[in-house]
Amino acid sequence: MRGVNKYFGTHHVLKDIDLDVHKGEVVIVIGPSGSGKSTLCRSINRLETIDSGEIRIDGVLLPEEGKALAKLRSDVGMVFQAFNLFAHKTVLENVTLAPIKVHKLSKKDAEKRAMELLTRVGVADHANKLPAQLSGGQQQRVAIARSLAMDPKLILLDEPTSALDPEMINEVLDVMIGLARSGMTMVVVTHEMGFAKKAADRVVFMSDGAIVEQSPPDQFFSAPKSDRAKDFLSKIL
Ligand code: ADP
Ligand code: MG
User: Fold this and answer.
1) How high is the pLDDT of residue 185?
2) 125: CA distance to ligand 1 center in Å?
3) What is the largest CA-CA distance in the chain?
4) Which is nearest to 213 in space by CA: 198, 199, 227?
5) Quick check: 5 pLDDT over 80?
6) CA-CA distance, 211 to 134, in Å (whole number)?
7) Contacts of 137 (CB under 8 A, 6+ apart)
8) How far is the CA of 144 from the centre of ligand 2 (A)?
9) Helix 91-101 × helix 136-148 angle, to 10°
10) Which intervals hold domain ABC transporter (predicted)?
11) Which of 12, 39, 158, 236 to mutate to test the pocket of ligand 1 (most atoms within 8 A of CB)?
């Protein structure tokens, strides 16, 4: 991202954002509520348009529309705070739908791959259930499997554990840690310091629409540079 600005009306929500995420890197985005973290993520797969600046993936500007936009959405997976599964489709169908439709996989191949992914996130036993029959933690793991099924170049996870009951948070974080260790490129909005310390290469701290500082996790949590980061950490720790 280079010089990215975004307004909602007169409200300036992304301010001159410059951000590089390298292949295989795990970047945590942290900051107060309303600081622009979700808007940043959403603009990377063009769920929001930006008003100025550039966003490139593998050197290519984000497409505006059409087939190229559909391709972008399959290259950039997104996992939201609310699980966003298709309520009337089974777990297996949730994971096979896009690969069949967008990647033109046969049903058989899509199901084979989906079962591998559901096994990897620990919910293969629930493949034929509807999302509502699963716990929140299980649903969020299905959402991760669904985004992996598109073989994305990058996965954006926006507060993936913040809607979960405490006992379910670790099962989702463990899947995310495994994903990070497998070399997946990830941008994760999270305040889970355990995850940040175990899996993140870099912490990006946002405040009031701007990136205020970027540091390795141990440095950020033990010795934040800016007063705004110090103030924020004193509230969450
Ligand atoms: P965060 O994820 O860090 O909590 P957001 O990116 O959701 O922050 O929001 C940044 C700012 O933009 C907030 O002030 C929020 O109220 C505002 N905002 C977000 N989405 C919209 C929208 N669709 N329309 C108007 N304002 C919005
Ligand atoms: Mg948010």
Assistant:
1) 97
2) 38
3) 55
4) 227
5) yes
6) 37
7) 164, 165, 167, 168, 169, 171, 172
8) 18
9) 20
10) 1-233
11) 39
Q: What is the pTM of this model?
A: 0.94
- pLDDT per position as a tens digit, 56-94: 999 889 888 888 888 888 899 999 988 789 999 999 999
Query: What residues line ligand 1, using a CB cutoff of 6 Å?
Result: 8, 13, 31, 33-39
Q: Residue with structure tokens 């669904």?
A: 146
Residue whose entry in the numeric block shows the structure tokens 């409200």: 11
Nearest to 185 by CA among 176, 198, 193, 194: 176
Complete DSSP assignment for 143-167? HHHHHHTT--SEEEEESTTTTS-HH
Give the pLDDT score at 74.
85
Of the candidates 9, 78, 10, 19, the residue with the CA atom closest to the CA atom of residue 53: 19
- Cα 39 to averaged position of ligand 1 atoms, centre (Å): 6
**pLDDT score of 92:** 98
Q: In angstroms, rounded to a whole number, what is the distance separating the alpha carbons of residues 121 and 143? A: 10
